[in-house]
Amino acid sequence: MRIWGSFYGEPEAAPLFLFFIDISVINAIIFTKNLSDTDVEKRGKSMPKIVDIKLRKEQIMQEAIQVFIEEGYHKTKLHQIAERCNIGRTTIYKYFKNKNDIFNCAINNVFDLLDNDYKIIAARSHASHLDKIKAYIGMILEDCYEKRNTMIMLVDLWLRIKRENNNEYIAKIKDRANEVQKVFEKLLHDGIEEEELKPVNVKSMAFTLFSLVESFVIQVSFADKLSLADSITSVNVLLDGLKV
Q1: 145-162 core/surface letters (b: 16 or more CB in 10 A; e: else)
Q2: What's the CA gap between 58 and 127, in Å, rounded?
Q3: Closest among 222, 78, 71, 98 to 157, alpha carbons compared
């Protein structure tokens, strides 16, 4: 069941991939780990504070999303994001130009992650096109299961943006989401050309696959008892219907 309905209208892609924003936490750099007690004592307060830039940007983006949800995107001020992050407003400018930059970086992180997933799959020269479709969808579902809490937060953000009629950002998200739908189109087209898949309407089927995953991902964010393995197995049963 598609929760979003036909928000964009057929056959354009819906904003599913807002939900995969990449907030992976990398290990902080512990500069003093291998120093002796004497070394640490000598350095004292003169030792510079090591800041993990990527981690700090991800933290700011995550907190900013929560503020966007609570205050509305247009009403949010940088000082509110800074207060949520327990940093000064000027510190944010070390990482982002403004709140628009924060939002754009969040969206780009999402689609860069998905683009990297596709490159990994496309490099599997011995895999069939159907297997590549299965693998791509499997990676998307895996991302969902790992980031359930963040996905729920992002659903709220998307609804808030929709209510605000923020057409500029709706268009940006739709354009990037359409890029992902084109991945399905390419895999389907190549599979049909090589007679691996049934001769279906490529655009229509790509939209159907996209919509299937969209609905599944939203449900996963609220369902506690679904397992990743069972979910992927269920999707694969449906995809096997594309075999010649």
Answers
A1: bebeebbebbbebbebbe
A2: 34
A3: 71
pLDDT value at residue 165: 77
Establish if 8 belongs to a structural domain.
no
Q: Which domain holds residue 197?
A: 36-242
Nearest to 142 by CA among 220, 56, 42: 220
> In 3-state terms, what secondary structure has residue 95?
coil
Asked if residue 126 belongs to a domain, the reply is yes
DSSP annotation of 19: G
Calpha distance 83→166 (Å, rounded): 25
The angle formed by the CA atoms of residues 134, 217 and 139, to the nearest 5 degrees, is: 35
What's the chain's average pLDDT?
76
| Cα–Cα distance measured from residue 236 to residue 196, given in angstroms and rounded to the nearest whole number | 16
What sign has the CA pseudo-torsion 224, 211, 121, 124?
Answer: positive
Give the pLDDT band (50/70/90) at residue 25.
very low
State yes or no: pLDDT of 46 exceeds 70.
no
How far apart, in whole angstroms, are the C-alpha atoms of residue 34 and residue 189?
Answer: 55
Q: Which helix (H) or strand (E) holds 169?
A: helix 167-193
Looking at the domain assignment, is residue 11 inside a domain? no
Residue 74: enclosing H or E segment and its boundaries? none
- Determine the Cα–Cα distance for residues 92 and 83; give it in Å rounded to an integer: 11
Q: Are 110 and 150 a contacting pair, CB within 8 Å?
A: no
> Does a structural domain hold residue 12?
no
Q: pLDDT-based confidence at 237, cuts 50/70/90?
A: very high
